[in-house]
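sry for the spam today, last one i promise. struct tokens for design, 417 residues
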């Protein structure tokens, strides 16, 4: 039997517990004991703070290739960034997508991410499945319906054609399939209704970009007399399986629709600030995403939700720290269709991440401040050990099978400059 003894572990409460013994039963957590003063001989020791595996609820893996390349020009916007992203997307083949995603998912593994929701409008699903398997992370492939605008490669002829294509994607034990509506710019109300019905019939999670930019709202109201969220709700999309990605510029009515449906709201603060979108607020259950891969660091996303709110309100402390930690773990898993993950309890998926306290950023952390220290001062570089499905995919901060920096360099270097 595999067992881990954690000096400190966050089990979902207000702070960390000391001396936590986690016994695995295959791919599940079998038993959890607290107050175990020292590691039993059969247990491997995890120093620092151990958390459930982190869930990256919103990713476009290929966008990792333009990190740092979109920062040079003054006076830009989301729309000028999108032009650069489209130029990259035009060059993608399944082989290029796979190499980029494999390296990017491995970078995510190093950051403690054990589950990624890949919002895929390039439709390289087989490549994404292979990439996630190689990187050792779980995947929910959110295949996006895209009917209007964008590039030809993004588009299906109809929502029914989208459904037939997605039905043909082979899921596996470590890879689930889900649905996405790219946005109300890309999918009309009739199309949204078909996607929502298909997702409901299959029990799939359903994600959509919502109100990232004011221009999207203005166009939608002018055309349909509805906000994007009102349109999606009218199409039957907004349920407890729905995730509104961004939801940056929404109305009080929109917020109420999310809360009443007990839907998820995925904030991607490092992308939203990079693209000058605005500051999102939490409505419904909070999840987090690295989205454009401006950085890959779920701890940074978690603290940004609170810190951005401090800038807006000049109040320190709107979101309790356990709420931020749950957003990065349990809520993200649930929003991607893995409700049995993201927690350290018997029966949960055996996905764990340990954050070391012997590096310069977190040295001197007191046990009673461990969770606050990790959320507010920790980063991807402090992740030491990552376990997915009971298997250690990262040890001592190194990936078990992939030279992550080298693969990123090769994959990005192979693109047209
Ligand atoms: Zn996105």
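last one done:
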């Amino acid at each position: 039997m595999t067992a881990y003894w954690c000096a400190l572990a966050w089990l979902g409460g207000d702070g960390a517990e000391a001396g936590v013994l986690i016994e695995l039963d295959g791919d599940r957590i079998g038993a959890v004991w607290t107050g175990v003063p020292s590691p039993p001989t059969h247990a491997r020791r995890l120093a620092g703070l151990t958390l459930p595996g982190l869930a990256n609820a919103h990713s476009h893996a290929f966008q990792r290739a333009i990190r740092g390349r979109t920062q040079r020009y003054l006076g830009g916007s989301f729309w000028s960034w999108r032009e650069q992203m489209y130029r990259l997307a035009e060059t993608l083949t399944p082989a290029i997508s796979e190499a980029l995603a494999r390296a990017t998912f491995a970078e995510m593994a190093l950051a403690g991410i054990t589950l990624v929701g890949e919002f895929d409008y390039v439709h390289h699903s087989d490549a994404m499945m292979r990439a996630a398997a190689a990187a050792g992370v779980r995947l929910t492939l959110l295949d996006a319906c895209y009917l209007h605008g964008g590039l030809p490669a993004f588009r299906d002829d109809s929502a029914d054609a989208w459904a037939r294509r997605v039905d043909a994607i082979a899921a596996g034990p470590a890879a689930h399939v889900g649905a996405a509506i790219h946005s109300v710019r890309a999918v009309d109300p009739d199309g949204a209704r078909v996607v929502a019905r298909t997702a409901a019939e299959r029990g799939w999670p359903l994600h959509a970009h919502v109100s990232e930019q004011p221009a999207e709202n203005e166009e939608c109201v002018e055309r349909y007399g509805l906000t994007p969220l009102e349109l999606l709700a009218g199409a039957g999309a907004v349920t407890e399986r729905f995730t509104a990605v961004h939801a940056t510029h929404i109305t009080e009515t929109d917020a109420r629709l999310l809360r009443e449906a007990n839907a998820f709201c995925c904030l991607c603060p490092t992308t939203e600030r990079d693209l000058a979108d605005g500051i999102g607020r939490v409505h419904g259950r909070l999840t987090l995403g690295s989205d454009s891969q401006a950085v890959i660091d779920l701890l940074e996303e978690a603290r940004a939700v609170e810190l951005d709110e401090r800038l807006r309100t000049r109040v320190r402390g709107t979101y309790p720290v356990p709420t931020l930690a749950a957003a990065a773990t349990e809520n993200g898993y649930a929003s991607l269709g893995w409700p049995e993950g993201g927690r350290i309890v018997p029966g949960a998926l055996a996905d764990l991440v340990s954050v070391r306290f012997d590096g310069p950023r977190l040295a001197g952390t007191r046990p009673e401040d461990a969770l606050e220290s990790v959320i507010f001062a920790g980063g991807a570089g402090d992740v030491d050990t990552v376990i997915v499905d009971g298997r250690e995919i990262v040890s001592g901060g190194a990936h078990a099978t992939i030279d992550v920096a080298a693969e990123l360099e090769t994959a990005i270097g192979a693109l047209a400059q």
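The pocket of zinc ion is lined by residues 58, 60, 119, 209, 245, 291 (CB under 6 Å). ok im logging off now
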